[in-house]
Fold:
Amino acid sequence: MMNIPFKKRYCAALLSALVLSPAMAAEQQAAAIQTASGVDLFPYLTSGFRYDDNIASTKTFKTDSWILGVTPGVQGQLLDGNSEYLFNTGIDYASFSSGSDDNYLDFNLGGSADVELNQSNSFNLNAAYNMGHEERGSGVFEGAGDSQDKPATFDTYNVGGFYEYGAKSTPARIQVNANYFDKEFTNFEALTLYRNYSDTDFGATFFYDSGASVSWVFDTSVISTKYDNVDPTGNRDSTSTNYRVGVDWEATASTSGSIRIGNQEKNFDNSDRKDFNGLSWDASVIWSPLTYSAFTFSTGNSAKDPSSDGDYIEATTYGVIWDHGWSDFFTTSVGYNQTDEDYVGVDRSDKLKVYSLSASYIASRWCTFVAGVDMTESSSSDVTYGFDRNIYYINAQMTL
Structure:
């Protein structure tokens, strides 16, 4: 077999996919696989190419690569009266032209049950497993992509749920919830063993509907974070307590949103680490001046654990996305997101800006093509960090 260069082989495959006409594709009908048990199965496949000009997120000695990605999976749904049961499983595979060391194969499996016992009592149960990775130069290897020969890999486990009391037709409802999350790295043990941790989360949310489209919300949560091993810089175990008030609304045909604002306390077991006590918020507002055009504005602020040095990071985010439908078949999306991170415990401040542009073309009921670019600008007061990165991509998203 002739050894065709990587870029030529991938471009040839891409062109052969793109020349499929909508008329040919329309001969196939998108549909679920209906089983005798009542479960509907929805297989899907996303396949595409991307060009990444800085795969290790480094400031110097950048490595670029063409990347083939394939993401097959299946979703399942079972409806039983007002109750719904869902599951999803799939893999995410990527092959890099720059070398096989960056290749990855992720796997995910999850499910949930939304059960309505009667008009006033309902509950949710959910669980998920993910075998994933952190790209070179990210996470525990942030700023050190040049010295990392392959991605860091991990397993995550999540199980949780809530119980809700109160009928939807009544003004007041209360929801109590619990969640457990665990992350375990599976390589680079000399470094990652200090980043294996678990979160145990308990909380409650009270809803009061003051009108047909407005709900006032009060929620509280306590999150206990435990690390498997004590970091060389000192114990990182902590407890975060959150109290927030807010509102969910859909007051007009053109506006909807959700706002939460309150106080966060993050207290470390280690008295040598600095605690956090301050304002925390999370907000998202959608404005649709036209039925086929929408702007989504979002912002948030919270204290979180760092992947590298420091006690905690106070992170503030801002974002806006404009989605516009030019026709029934063609839509575009333009976005900007900024994250400001102030580190406590080390002298470091970061600013991350991401510009995104994408276009989607519905070739048929079962196939959509998406092309776009993500441009990242990362700067830091610490010269070790900061980078520029551009990713150009085209994908085909397919169902039955």
